[in-house]
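Dissemination and training. As part of the outreach component of the grant, students in the summer workshop were shown how a complex can be specified as a set of sequence lines and then modelled as a single object. The example used during the hands-on session is reproduced here so that future cohorts can follow it. Participants entered these lines:
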Amino acid sequence: DGGITQSPKYLFRKEGQNVTLSCEQNLNHDAMYWYRQDPGQGLRLIYYSQIVNDFQKGDIAEGYSVSREKKESFPLTVTSAQKNPTAFYLCASKGRQGGLVYGYTFGSGTRLTVV
Amino acid sequence: QQQVKQSPQSLIVQKGGIPIINCAYENTAFDYFPWYQQFPGKGPALLIAIRPDVSEKKEGRFTISFNKSAKQFSLHIMDSQPGDSATYFCAAIGSGNTGKLIFGQGTTLQVKP
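and obtained this result:
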């Protein structure tokens, strides 16, 4: 089955440490996205990539970095500059999906906690 | 800036009731309006979606009503079940292949047995 795989499911970060969240898709979608979800809030866009080797900042990019070296992969690094990184992180891709013109598929998320 | 406003923030209904979640948007460039269902610890999953040239769409127990002139749309869940208890997000997508997904704030629904 095609889909998006995020790993790890749970991640703990120490103060001052960089951590990288993995996102892999086998849907052959060009566009990929990273969202952050805080309790009781909607999803906020961190970074997105429309094509390999290109990406743009979303609404809350400060303290995060990404790369897009392969179509299938869009890792997110949470740097020490992100002062409040504890959140649920969701990766998504966009492409033709079933009978829809453009559908978004989400991964199962990574819960990051600062310890 | 918030371009899709969703209400209520939370909703409790009895089994068999019809919860209604409302959304309003500002940007007329949106041309696709999906609803997502999210269970705790999981990613959102597409539930149902509509284009603005359609006033209503039904899929099983889920119905979207769309009012283009008022820039409002709503989700109705018929004969709600405890298994429908989840967080629901409305969203809007800008036109074209590069259109980004803009989410509402989400509604937490609890269906009591």
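DSSP finds no helices and eleven strands in chain B. Students were then asked to discuss how this feature might be tested experimentally.
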